[in-house]
Design goal:
The complex is a heterodimer of chains A (191) and B (98).
Chain A (H helix, E strand, L loop, with lengths): L2 H13 L3 H23 L2 H18 L10 H20 L20 H19 L3 H12 L4 H8 L3 H28 L3
Chain B lengths: L11 H11 L7 H17 L4 H47 L1
The chains are: A mainly alpha (191), B mainly alpha (98).
Chain lengths: 191, 98
């Protein structure tokens, strides 16, 4: 166990009775959990609401957390994953990320037509990602947004590193198929 | 709008590049982060009673209420007994006078 992990476990033990320890855990993980939920829901308001619920639930159950070699962040991601799944079930819809939220990501492009094309590609890619099954979306978010290794993703998703590698390969293939299918639809429709 | 994905070579590397460009970390609103932290720490600080302490308090209240009720019934019965005794004495004294 690394010094960071042992320090975190100590914080988790103290968090059951000390508000400041829970506050420190919150500071460490809130942005990652928010990012995960944001990319799963595509809406800032819903991301804030669900992030608050994740930490409220964690607060209520942190005393029951047992160190079984799984990091505390994995426990938080699982809470977030379950809440997002309930959210999708309750709403029975798949929201889209507002296009304007990702305009800044195309920073180097200055020509208006090229910028519009880049935004459209970006938007379509995110739509394609959201059409993937939840575990594949989770994998892509953890890999690209959180920049986690396959081993870390495996701990969070409860799979081996090899299984994550294999899932990643299949995910990229499905994403390519999804993009092509969507593009065929976009190309076939009148502009 | 025509996107033109099909004109690009969508191999694994290209898809990864596109994902790196699109899936970028976002920062939550700072006021949301600080407000939520304050709320969580306040809830935690205010939650001084564990469930077992609550059960103990509830049991104590029930026992105290039962004891208080028993005591009140005893007082009531005592008072009734006293009234009865006084009434009997009054009747006895009346009978003696007669």
């Amino acid at each position: 166990m690394t010094p960071y992990e042992s320090d975190e476990m100590e914080l988790v033990r103290r968090a059951a009775s000390e508000p400041e320890a829970f506050g420190e855990l919150y500071n460490r993980h809130v942005t990652r959990i928010y990012n995960y939920i944001y990319y799963r829901t595509g809406d800032y308001q819903d991301a804030e609401d669900l992030t608050a619920r994740v930490f409220q639930r964690a607060l209520g159950h942190v005393g029951n957390f047992q160190d079984q070699g799984v990091p505390f962040s994995a426990w938080l991601y699982r809470i977030a994953h379950n809440l997002v799944a309930n959210w999708h079930r309750d709403r029975s819809r798949r929201p889209v990320v507002p296009l304007e939220d990702h305009v800044a990501d195309t920073g180097a492009i200055t020509h208006p037509e090229a910028l519009a094309m880049a935004q459209e590609q970006n938007w379509m890619l995110l739509r394609a990602v959201r059409k993937l099954p939840p575990d594949r979306q989770q994998l892509l978010i953890l890999k690209f947004v959180e920049r986690l290794s396959n081993a870390e993703i495996g701990q969070i998703m409860g799979r081996t590193e090899g299984a994550i590698k294999s899932l990643y390969h299949r995910t990229l293939n499905s994403l390519r198929d999804q993009i092509k299918m969507m593009d065929d639809g976009a190309t076939g429709s009148p502009d | 709008m025509r996107i033109g994905w099909n004109r690009q070579r969508l191999d694994r590397k290209r898809i990864e590049e596109l994902l790196e460009d699109s899936l970028v970390p976002v920062e939550p609103n700072p006021s949301f982060v600080s407000d939520l932290r304050a709320r969580l720490v306040t809830i935690k600080g205010g939650r001084v009673l564990s469930p077992w302490v609550l059960v103990l308090i509830l049991a104590s209240i029930i026992i105290f209420a039962a004891s208080a009720l028993g005591f009140a019934i005893r007082i009531l019965l005592g008072l009734l007994g006293l009234v009865g005794l006084m009434e009997r004495r009054r009747r006895e004294s009346k009978a003696l006078v007669a």
